[in-house]
Amino acid sequence: MTSQTVHLSPPDVGPLEESYLIEALRSGWVAPAGPALQAFEGEVAARVGTAGAVAVSSGTAALHLALLGVGVGPGDVVVVPTLTFIATANAVRYIGARPVFVDCDAQTGNVDVGLVADLLRQLRSRGERVGAVIPVDMFGSCADYAGLEPLCAEAGVPLVEDAAEALGASYRGRSAGSFGQVGAISFNGNKIMTTSGGGMLVSDDAALLARARHLSTQAREPTPYYEHRELGYNYRLSNLLAALGRAQLVRLDGMIGRRRQLRDRYAKLFAPLPGVRLLGTEDSDSNCWLTVITVDPERSGWRAADLAAHLARHDIETRPVWKPMHLQPVHVGAESLLSGAAEQLFAHGLTLPSGSALSEPQVARVFAAIDEFLAMSAGGPAA
Ligand SMILES: *Cc1c(COP(=O)(O)O)cnc(C)c1O
Q1: What local confidence, expressed as pLDDT, does residue 361 receive?
Q2: Within-domain flag for 2
Q3: Residue 133: domain span
Q4: Residue 258 and residue 218 in one domain
Q5: Last residue of a domain, which of 226, 250, 274?
Q6: Cα(154)–Cα(176) distance, rounded to whole angstroms?
């Protein structure tokens, strides 16, 4: 990696972020709590359409507190998509609960609702206590909530939405983050908008949010001395970073628009090619966080890994999709219900440069390099 490197999804910050940060710094609110923090929570809740929000230091922390908030306890089983970032499964383990991994839909990469139904039936017949189901809005496209919400309601299992990648996306007119009892958002540096590091819980459940806020500040009681009756965490987002987030939120729609433009260009480029398609579905209004192609080498004549290697030679970053959780050494031994779809996506998927901060010359470099690759690869299936 050099300064010439085209990154996958670099932070998109400029003069507006600078002015918000300096204002927060000059206001003297440098300690964690402060007016920017409160304002940021209100603005994100309004954007998502929930009654409230609690800002925390990461999306992972938001997931951890969300699971505690819906009552997940040690020994519970929690249903987790096998195709996700490690944080979804790790948050379950922090509590001493057991993730059970379930496979995804091959077209969207989102959790396979039919398999979740099968799994819930199996777990119930075995008498397991299921603490939660955590659908993930994969790469910024909402999971199939028309299927998942009634399923969880019927089974009496809380739904916790991992909307870490999906702020600004929607599904049938509802915003990502607003599904289930509580949603978790991430503001990590590579996400659609960033506080350099941060996250948020969004929910209509005031009691759940109040408890999350309490746990995020070391569960400190409102006494003049330090009194703690339960185990808390130091998870609160700082006021300065909230100020950065407020500036990013102002620009969110513009940043989504830029990513959508990029996705449309990729779609046009790959549409005529046999065996190549973009991951996703029309059913979800994606925030276009990351554009992912899947490549069937039998039909395309080349592999996703070949394109990745070619782009790497041009100093252009790509990534495979998430390595499935059931293949992760840290979660070895966890139970899973699989169809093979996630392993297929891991083998044949490729995440392309998608960031809103990519300059026009950088984008031109990416497309020129892909054109060059396609010209070289034309002719016959891969050996
Ligand atoms: C990024 C991400 C998280 C974790 O967010 P952090 O802010 O990095 O802790 C959780 N789940 C998914 C699906 C993510 O992509």
Answers
A1: 96
A2: no
A3: 15-250
A4: no
A5: 250
A6: 22
Burial class (CB in 10 A: 0-12, 13-18, 19+), 342: buried
Asked if residue 211 and residue 77 are part of one domain, the reply reads yes
How far is residue 166's CA from residue 145's CA, in Å, rounded to a whole number? 14
What is the distance in A from the centroid of ligand 1 to the CA of 163?
Answer: 8
Query: pTM value?
Result: 0.97
Query: Nearest 5°: CA angle at 220, between 41 and 227?
Result: 165
Question: Which of ligand 1's atoms lies nearest the C-alpha of 58?
Answer: 7
- Do 202 and 308 lie in a common domain? no
Q: Are residues 237 and 268 in the same domain?
A: no
Q: Rounded distance, CA 116 to CA 70, Å?
A: 19
Same domain, 127 and 208: yes
Measured from CB, residues less than 6 Å from any atom of ligand 1 are 58-60, 84-85, 87-88, 136, 162, 164-165, 186, 188, 199
**C-alpha of residue 161 to centroid of ligand 1, in Å:** 12
Same domain, 246 and 309: no
Tokens of 134: 């955590």
Task: In whole angstroms, give the CA distance from residue 128 to residue 200.
Answer: 30
DSSP-derived secondary structure for 105-166? -TTT-SB-HHHHHHHHHHHHHTT--EEEE--B-GGG----HHHHHHHHHHHT--BEEE-TT-
Residues 76 and 113 in one domain: yes
CATH number of the domain within which 79 lies: 3.40.640.10
Q: Which of 47, 64, 98, 191 is catalytic?
A: 191
Let me know if 320 is exposed, middle or buried by CB neighbors in 10 A (0-12, 13-18, 19+).
middle
Each residue's pLDDT tens digit, 86-122? 999 999 999 999 999 999 999 999 999 999 999 999 9
Question: If you measure from the C-alpha of residue 193 to the centroid of ligand 1, how many angstroms do you get, rounded to a whole number?
Answer: 12
**Catalytic: 191?**
yes
Q: Taking all residues of the chain, what is their mean pLDDT, rounded to a whole number?
A: 96
Domain count, the chain: 2
